[in-house]
Give the backbone structure.
Amino acid sequence: MAFIDEMKAAGHAVESILIALNTAGLKIAARTLRAWCAPAAGTNGPAARTVSDALVEDAVRSLAFTTNAAGQRVLAPEGLYGRRKILALIRRTLLPEAGFGAVDRAMRSLGLAGVVRGKRPRTTVPNPAGTRAADLLNRDFTAPAPDQKWITDFTYVRTYQSFTYVAFIVDCFSQKIVGWHASLTRDVELVDVPLRMALWRRSHEGTPVGRDQLIHHSDAGSQYTSVRFTEHLKIEGIRPSIGSVGDAYDNALMETINGLYKSECIRTKVFHDGPWRTVSDVEYATAAWVEWYNNRRLHSSLGMTSPTEYEAAHYADTEPVAG
């Protein structure tokens, strides 16, 4: 029995112990060995895996669900995560030793699977007569610091009232949404308001955008090639960049952001519970999603941190040391 206890303590399964005993000439049935290994009556408790699985499931439940104003249990934004991000969130907040298998079992038990992005419809119509700037990014959506490269595009949401168009501007360095706007019309104001918002936001944060510092990249839509918009970029000292016509890869990162917006905000009930009736419904839900996306959502491309955390870490590393 001392040998069996020693093998059990080393983590060997019953089958491994049987092989060792049989090799030594001791013929013991597996049922008999399990009976010997079982704890005494009245002292047996749940297996260690059962306990750990219960702890992980409680952690997933507390992160993936919340209680609304009516006291109902509803899905939280974090409930939109897949297994990798749920695991990363649990490890950084509740259970540092949680395992992938336990998280997978917990999500299956709770009916969670994460959202899946769908295909993006065509919303931007190029203006063949418009004067287009060159493509300064050439599909390189990385940047060494914030406010070096901004990308922009818009998508749409069907409402009872009409189509609502939503435009975003995203910083390539941190993938932070620095400006957005919802409108019933696809005019220049749809894309100009996010630009004004983004410039104000950076100035308000204490990191104003300098002249000739920033590249603003978009597709070849008529809104972005309009005289009014290009003049605004020129006044602000921002260099325009426009991708080729009909090539989604020339604005691939923005296509990804639009896909996330549709799958996480529009096609779920997390940020708006009910039908999309008016542009106001879209505005309120988009504001909530952008706040979560910038400040709480974990991004695998950023080392499982949020855009705000990523930028804060950058400025902390580059801050000059006081002499």
